[in-house]
Amino acid sequence: MSSTPRSGTADGLARRLHRDLDGEARFDDYTRHLYSRDASMYAITPLGVAFPRHADDVRSAVAAAAEHGVSVTARGAGTSLAGQTVGPGLVLDLSRHMHRIVDLDPTARTAVVEPGVVQDQLNRAAAAHGLTFGPDTSTSDRATIGGMIGNNSAGSGSLRHGMTIDHVRALDVVLSDATSTRLAPVTEQERARRAALPTLDGRIHRDLPHLLTTNSRAIAEDFPAFWRRACGYRLDRLADSSPFNPAHLVVGSEGTLALTTRAEVALVPAPARTTMAVGHFTSVAAAVEATEDALACGPATVELLDRTILDLSRQKIEYASLGTVLEGDPGALLFVAFAGDDEDELRTRLHELTALWARHGHGYHTLHATTPDRQAALLKVRKAGLGLLMSAGEGTRRPLAFVEDTAVHPAHLAAYTRRFRAVLDRHGLTAGFYGHCSVGCLHIRPFVDLADPAQVRTMRAVAEEIKDLVTEYGGVNSSEHGDGLARSEFNRELFGPRLYEAMREVKSLFDPDNRLNPGKIVDAPAMTDHLRDAALGPAPQLRTHLSFSVVGGMRGAADRCMNIGACRKSGTGTMCPSYMATREEHDSTRGRAGALVKALSSPDAHRALGDERLHEILDLCLMCKACKSECPLGVDMATLKAEALAHHHDLHGVPARSRVFAGARTLNRLGSATAPLSNLPGRIPLLRTLLDRTLGITPHRPLPVFARRNLARWSRRRNRTVQLAPLGQLTFLADSFTTYTEPDIGRAAVELLEHCGWEVRLESGGCCGRAALSKGLADVAKSQARTLAHRISASSPPGSPVVGCEPSCLMTLRDEHRAMHPDDPVIKDLAGRVRQIEELLLDAVTDGRLRLRADSWPAGRRFLYHGHCHQKAEVGTAATVALLRAVPGAEVVEPDAGCCGMAGSFGYESEHYELSMTVGADRLFPAVEAQPDDTVIVATGTSCRQQILHGTGRRAWHPLEVVRAAL
């Protein structure tokens, strides 16, 4: 990894930025490390990072950097695939604060946005007016408009809507001399007026037309013929357009010419309807051969997905629904979408394509997806293609983006793909294939180990062969993801000496001192310089409390992150709740993973894990486990944080509050035994203040209420009627919360299970270890886990189900127990026996053993259901939703409400209370508050129910309470 050491330059620049910026500037080693990477195979450690709040801050930052002789690299989401957004100087994160939609004019179909606005954010605002932003990237949930402008991004809809350059009207920018200007269409009279000014803007408006004239022949003759170009400076657009608009030259310039602070972009009408044909093929070659027939039917998009990615999707809960709609085991799928307003016309084109494929023998099955719900499962996997492919990497052998988005005319795509595969085969490389067949662009990522010098040489050889191959077919070396560090080296050869020198003149005109993102597009280093994995070195030895089964141990588990940024999304999913609340890079899953990689690469990794700056970065992780399922690479930050906390405690001791929360079962048992007296401290302000000052337990949140008649006491004293148990015995995990604070839920569960024919054995003798592990008391948790697992195994029939009501505890038996004791056969066996109660009750509904009454109070009601994060991560919520729908006449709504923000003890901690409420207020509270008073709120987790009550004043029921009431 290229690195710039801390120096007097850094100190002086830091002082200047702290003085001049309203935003923040950070020069600590961890922040510099986090911004040394993007989603590419490169890493360059910057001198520092600034977070501008507005255009004046950008101008001040550029001026300060120039004064100290430091280059400037701007970035949005940091998801560039070719290394555009890493650099050795000052990095400007324009996504942290500059994310306002300044104006949206539905009549003019334009929007004015700051560079940090995310594509989906703009699309949500535009959707209210039937509009959308045309370049629909697969990373629309985190890609910023500023990044799309820098990259000239395009997506699956580029056949109809082109590229970002086709939608940019005007740009407010900061130039390399720290002056601001507006680049927009100008009349010749206005251009001449500006050209007369003694400024850099004046020089641009004076010299750029002359540059175009001088190099007109090279511009006309030397650009690749194919239109979908995200490479080089787009001089062709200036030469071919009138009026003169230098903003188009900035689009795709990767921050090397000017820094965008505000953009006026065009919007397009969103189609009223979309219908889709999904062709099933035996191979990628067969699917590509069918592309021309698809294009003949006038589609909006034609997308390819190969078996590699399909197989990977089947391993993730997030994409499991895809398997239910496919026919057989396709080697490739072709997604052909038709969009418009006339439903009959769309249906006609769908059937025309199906008939055409059948007539020409293309594919063995064509699926028609005509409803949004059916299309959702298909599109979700297609948009996750990159992440799913990345998840197949092992250790430092990863699918890399170095020949990733070449494009040729679709008529040549079949032949080109065959020869491309032959190149890979000759070099012994495998790759996944997906992409946009409609525009001849395939995303092909060969698996390469950059830690192996021989593999690096192979990578370069393949890059050179593919560059020559795409040139032979009149295509482009980058049609979507830009030049960056991966491809800029080849631009002289690709564009020819005349055009390349014209591009160097452009760079010199806009940036005479080479301050803005140097080394990209022109005058670039070799593509094999600054490689991320090559410089990381082997992981130091580290004894861990938990098992990390991936190559490289704990560091390997963290280093699985390839910075694709799925954890930076907002408004959808659960990952990452703290990032959604703070918009801080270090509060994202990838930020924390990157920080851990830095610590675990230190010579003394154990001591590095005790670093206080590292634990500031880990602190706001709610350990929701959403990253385990929603991160395509499966980075499990909850487990990584638990291990890091354990090392921190080894070095610094265990805080009193951590011991209290780790002993939740003991605390709850004592509270129940002394109730109702034990509930008084929660009602006395003075005692709540004392808890705040001594333990850091917030006085703003109600404490749980202990139940005198707890679940174990009820079970011992109840009058049992003799019942047959034809299904045999199961074990009910009487967790610390269901037992001592919400025993009515446990009662409902036991009664339902017995009604369905089970003999229920209550396991209430110990803790699963979840509470201790969450606070970093790994050895305590391991002891509790082994004790509980062996007790259950010894006292239950082999193979019998183990069930429970609290997902965080039940799922611990499936997941964390195995991480704590990977070689214990009893624990492995027990993990395989864990079932959700909802699954067993659904079986009973199906075979008639459980009949719910149509005259019960839950019948005919509307339910809003919120699933527990651990449940969603481990097994999903489908069983719970299906059980609620089994209530006669029930309407079940499951909003995409993310994490509730409570996260067990997290929401009780004084310093975390405000963030906890912010997370809940993002989507969950509004979803609940929008429901009519007679809607029944349902939530699986005890923390979720507490948070809903506290944040909205609405009671939330456990699903089993509702079903029991319908019995």
Question: Helix share of residues?
Answer: 40-55%
The low-pLDDT segments are: 1-5
Strand content: 5-15%
Largest sheet: 7 strands, antiparallel
What strand line-up does the widest sheet have? 15-12-14-13-17-18-16
Total number of β-strand segments? 25
- General shape: globular
What is the number of helices?
Answer: 46
Return the average pLDDT rounded to an integer. 94
Helix-strand makeup class? alpha/beta
Quote the distance from N terminus to C terminus.
63 Å
Calculate Rg over CA atoms: 30 Å
Give your account of this protein's structure.
This protein is an alpha/beta fold and 967 residues long. Helix content is 43%, strand content 13%. The protein has 46 helices and 25 strands. Strands 15-12-14-13-17-18-16 form a 7-stranded antiparallel beta sheet, sandwiched between helices. A 5-stranded antiparallel beta sheet has the order 5-6-10-8-9. Strands 1-2-4-3 form a 4-stranded mixed beta sheet, with helices on one face. A hairpin with a 4-residue loop joins strand 5 (101-105) and strand 6 (110-113). Helix 8 (200-214) packs antiparallel against helix 21 and helix 18 (413-426) packs antiparallel against helix 19 (453-472). The longest helix has 20 residues, at 453-472. Mean pLDDT is 94; it is low at 1-5.
